[in-house]
Design goal:
Blueprint (H helix, E strand, L loop, with lengths): L12 E6 L4 E4 L1 H7 L3 H4 L14 H12 L4 E8 L5 E12 L5 E10 L2 H12 L13 H5 L3 H65 L6 H25 L6 H17 L5 H25 L8 H12 L1 H21 L5 H31 L4 H26 L8 H82 L15 H60 L8 H102 L4 H100 L4 H43 L5
Antiparallel strand pairs: 1-2, 1-5, 3-4, 4-5
Protein name: PAS domain S-box protein
Pfam families: MCPsignal (PF00015), PAS_9 (PF13426)
Keywords: Membrane, Transducer, Transmembrane, Transmembrane helix
Length: about 850
């Protein structure tokens, strides 16, 4: 029975297929989980890893989404070699070669949530009843908004990211300031406690002498008590400020009360009781010091220049001084007993000396690192080296005059001075380190505070600059697009003038497009200007020709009527020769005038023909330029599409960055575990691991923002492609209008040809009539023409006159057609204003 397996957390399964769906690459995590060998997967179909229950609609949805060069995201069910299965939150994207051509698809799969798996199981069981909803297609959502809205969204997102980044940096510096301030106060506590421990140690030694019967130490002990009281006042003031914050308020109060109690009862104690009371007091001081080091974060400070100082000042030097104090007290007690000294006391003295040797060796190593990372610590190094050089002298004194002798030969005062001198040197070194730590943390706190202030000012300045810049960019883009769109739409609608300027002095792609659109409009302006002139002249001349033909038609009709009357009155011809002669003379003059008018009309028609030929040539040139503009727009859209394909490569880089971020998180977790195992020595390393984890989280967050920005950028590019397509469609409509103008010009030219043919016929008829009139006139003048010939001539004239009248009617109709065509052409041209 097949069981469900889980994709391990922080694991990414990925593989590639070619365009046919054959696997060409798999990563190690996928091979490990799927159970197949790499050789069993490469070259095989993706169906080998798909579960047989995968609905066909899922595969179709993936193919359809990828065909638009868009990513697909959803839940897929895969099967392993053993027959088990697992659910994966999968993202499928095309990937491309160096030339930008798609060569296959990239599958990236990660663990799915329980809610996603439940929905996927329901869909897989009822693929026909449930809607997949797997496709990640933001295109429709983005297309709902205007360019200005999308630009404002992007600018708002950038401003938000800038604000978040600035606040993050400020908060980081705020944390650094607080940490530095806490450590500053901690170092001040440390310095105060160091002074207290030094004075307490001195008081312990002097009181040991006083209680042992040495009156010379009485005055010194009183002076130390006064110094302790003064130092405790400063310590209590510091405790009032930060004691509760560092959780040492009550312990510090208790330490002060113990000192007051010890000061009161000390004169009545034995040397041993006084020693033990002082030891108890110093231990409480050491406990306060350790607690302050923990609470203030001193022990967690990761910087090399302060880490070893803190370690030496809080964890080593105070304990070395206390051990030296124990060495002093034990040695004085042993020397004071003389011959009564016990062997166990000598062994204890040797044991304390060995512990001191260990402390010196450990501190010497730390002092080496302090010298390495702090160039300003020469005084500290010299002071410690001086103490380190005095310790062998003390060791020699103890060995030669105490340890090796059956009865100690060392003088108590000699021994006291040697140990006390070394203790004071150790405390002096610790005070110097504490002061330098306080200075460093004060400088660090001041730097963090100043940096946060500067970052606030810089962030606000950059934010204001970005807002102004984004506003100007959006306004410049939107104003150009809106103005250009309004101008072109107004030109198309006839409410705008062709002389409008689209050159805004912009040097980007939009500016280049607008410049070529301006050139295109100039070409249209020239053509419209010529068409307007031609249409105006054509309309005017057509009207004149129509008037002439109309008058001529009336004259010919009258002439036809006269000719009929003349035919009816042939019997009176002989008596009216003189009247006929005059009438024929008048008719000859009219015919000459008509012949001249028809000749002028023929020349006018020739001019119209030449103008129409020029217009045809210009419309053909304009058609070619419009077609070139459409091709340029299409090439621009193709170039933007290629840029969109290049932008898809960012997704793969983002996936790689996500993988690196996840592995960095895992590395940070392992480092934190190892640091925890190391205990106190791994505290600094734990902070580094924590910072690495934060860096990985910030990287993942920024990567998601980059992916979101990349998706918005690709949507904006696709919107630009849509605008290019709309521009191309406008070019197509313009080409259709030019074609209509060409067809109109052809009709005008055809009508003009017909009119020219009819005019030629009229001219020939008029010429024949003119010749006949001359014959009649010659016959009448000679008075030798018979009545029959006159009758025939009149009949010929009547026939020719009727033909002329009929032809004049045809010419009148043609002139009217040309006049209407000219008016239509003029109306179409007047749509474009200039």
């Amino acid at each position: 029975m097949a069981i469900q397996v889980q994709i391990p957390q922080n694991t990414t399964l990925s593989f590639k297929t070619d365009l046919k769906g054959n696997i060409v690459w798999v990563n190690d995590d996928f091979v490990k989980l799927i159970g197949f060998d790499r050789s069993e997967l490469l070259g095989h179909s993706i169906k080998k890893v798909q579960h047989p229950q995968t609905p066909v609609s899922v595969s179709k949805k993936i193919s359809k989404t990828l065909s638009f060069n868009e990513p697909w995201n959803g839940i897929l069910k895969n099967q392993t070699k053993s027959g088990d299965y697992f659910w994966a939150n999968a993202t499928v994207t095309p990937y491309y070669d160096s030339k930008g051509s798609s060569v296959g698809y990239m599958y990236v799969e990660r663990s799915a949530s329980e809610n996603q798996i439940k929905k996927a199981e329901t869909f897989y069981l009822n693929p026909n009843l449930n809607e997949s909803g797997f496709t990640l297609n933001p295109k429709k959502l983005v297309y709902k908004f205007k360019i200005k809205t999308k630009l404002l969204f992007v600018s708002g997102l950038m401003a938000s990211m800038m604000i978040v980044l600035g606040i993050n940096l400020i908060l980081i510096k705020k944390v650094e300031y607080e940490d530095a301030f806490n450590r500053l106060k901690g170092s001040e506590f440390n310095l105060s406690l160091t002074n207290l421990m030094q004075l307490t140690a001195k008081h312990r030694g002097l009181m040991a002498r006083v209680l042992s019967g040495d009156p010379t130490a009485k005055e010194g002990s009183l002076q130390i008590e006064n110094q302790l009281d003064s130092t405790f006042k400063n310590f209590l003031n510091l405790n009032e400020e930060e004691g509760k914050h560092f959780r040492v308020y009550e312990l510090s109060k208790e330490t002060y009360n113990d000192w007051n109690h010890l000061k009161e009862v000390n004169p009545g104690l034995t040397p041993k009781e006084s020693y033990l009371a002082h030891v108890s007091l110093i231990k409480k001081m050491l406990n306060v010091n350790s607690e302050v080091g923990e609470s203030s974060g001193l022990f967690l400070d990761p910087d090399k220049d302060t880490y070893f100082m803190i370690d030496v000042s809080l964890s080593k030097l105070p304990y070395l001084a206390e051990k030296l104090g124990q060495l002093r007290a034990t040695g004085l007690a042993y020397v004071g007993k003389g011959a009564n000294a016990e062997e166990s006391e000598k062994n204890l003295l040797q044991e304390i000396m060995g512990a001191n040797i260990g402390y010196f060796e450990s501190i010497s190593i730390s002092i080496t690192f302090i010298a390495k990372f702090n160039s300003d610590s020469k005084a500290i190094i010299e002071a410690y080296k001086h103490a380190e050089a005095d310790f062998p002298l003390l060791h020699k004194l103890i060995q030669d005059k105490i340890i090796k002798e059956k009865i100690p030969t060392a003088k108590p005062l000699e021994y006291y001075n040697a140990t006390t001198n070394l203790i004071d040197q150790i405390f002096n070194v610790n005070q110097m380190i504490s002061r330098q730590l306080a200075e460093k943390f004060k400088a660090r706190a001041d730097h963090a505070k100043n940096y946060a202030t500067i970052m606030t000012i810089v962030t606000l300045t950059i934010l204001v600059f970005l807002i102004i810049l984004q506003y100007l960019i959006i306004q410049s883009i939107m104003s150009v697009i809106q103005d250009s769109t309004n101008i072109i739409s107004q030109i198309v609608r006839g409410s705008g003038e062709l002389k409008e300027n689209l050159d805004y002095g912009i040097n980007d792609e939009i500016g280049g497009l607008l410049k070529w659109m301006g050139v295109f409009i100039l070409n249209i302006t020239e053509i419209v200007f010529i068409l307007r002139q031609v249409s105006g002249e054509l309309s005017a001349k057509s009207k004149d020709a129509a008037n002439l033909v109309r008058n001529y038609s009336i004259t010919t009709q009258d002439q036809a009527a006269s000719t009929e009357e003349t035919s009816a009155a042939t019997e009176e011809l002989a008596a009216s020769v003189e009247n006929v002669f005059l009438s024929i003379s008048t008719q000859a003059d009219h015919l000459k005038e008509i012949e001249k008018v028809t000749s002028d009309f023929k020349m006018a028609m020739s001019d119209v023909a030449n103008a129409m030929l020029g217009m045809t040539n210009l419309t053909e040139e304009f058609y070619k330029q419009a077609n070139d503009g459409m091709l340029t727009t299409k090439n621009t859209a193709d170039s933007i599409h290629i840029v969109n394909q290049k932008a898809e490569l960012i997704d793969e880089v983002v996936n790689i960055i996500n993988d690196i971020s996840d592995r960095t998180n895992l590395l940070a977790l392992n480092a934190a575990i190892e640091a925890a195992r190391a205990g106190d020595l791994g505290r600094g390393f734990a902070v580094v691991a924590q910072e690495i984890g934060k860096l990985a989280e910030q990287t993942a967050h920024n990567t998601r923002n980059i992916q979101s920005l990349t998706t918005d950028t690709k949507s904006a590019i696709k919107t630009s492609v849509g605008m290019m397509m709309n521009t191309e469609e406008s070019f197509r409509e313009l080409l259709n209008n030019i074609t209509k103008i060409q067809e109109t010009a052809k009709l005008v030219r055809s009508a003009q040809d017909k009119q020219t043919e009819d005019t030629n016929r009229i001219v020939e008829s008029v010429h024949k009539i003119n010749e006949n009139s001359l014959h009649i006139l010659n016959a009448a003048s000679q008075e030798k023409i018979a009545v029959e010939e006159i009758s025939k001539s009149i009949e010929t004239i009547a026939t020719g006159t009727q033909v002329i009248a009929d032809n004049s009617l045809v010419l009148l109709e043609t002139a009217k057609d040309i006049e209407v065509t000219g008016e239509h052409l003029q109306t179409a041209v007047e749509t474009y204003k200039y």
